Amino acid sequence: MTTRSPLALTVLALLHYQPLHPYGIQRLIKQWGKDQVINVGQRAGLYRTIERLHRDGLITVRETGREQAYPERTVYEVTDAGREVAHEWLREMLATPRQEFPEFPAALSHLLLLSRDEMVAALELRAESLSATLNGIEASLSVESEHGLPRITQLETEYLRAVTATELDWVRSVVEDLRAGRLTWSTDQLRSMAGNSEG
User: Fold this and answer.
1) What pairs with residue 61 in β-bridges?
2) Do the beta carbons of residue 36 and residue 22 sit within 8 Å?
3) Same domain, 75 and 142
4) Of 33, 63, 95, which marks where a domain is finished?
5) If DSSP codes are grouped into helix, strand and coil, which group holds residue 74?
6) Half-sphere exposure of 31 toward its Cβ, with a 13 Å CA cutoff?
7) Has residue 1 been placed in a domain?
8) Beta-bridge partner residues of 60
9) Are residue 14 and residue 87 in the same domain, yes or no?
10) pTM score, whole prediction
């Protein structure tokens, strides 16, 4: 059975609305702003996901056709099994937090490889990037509201805003603590703790 993933769920969800060819799926993901939460940077990944969903009977070929100036396109639609699986995945993904091992916490766990100045510089760059991202999210929410979209269609963007704003506040507080000398450590103590773990 196809492994559950955000992209696989999104393909099944979009096919709930209407049959689509892969390019149409990719276009809708971007038009609806789902590329903020779904990785569709590589078209090959989308095609592999579609192949797996088709192999497992969760989607089926509705038709194959050719439009002028376009290569042959296969149009897919969701099957009854695909609808059931999409609903099952969605309930599980909403209800159960999952450990996803992102890069940032892993990098924080090795922060002591850097000097205090290097820590501050790197975290300040992250804060700048988060601030720009937050401004973009705010603009996106504003545009969506102007178009009269119901709030239910903006929940993932609201979530991204909340998470980004929280991370930005936290990163800025760590930078302030580093600059003020409130965040302290002893290299000798850390080496001693590392040596004790060998026994």
Assistant:
1) 76
2) no
3) no
4) 95
5) strand
6) 7
7) no
8) 77
9) yes
10) 0.82
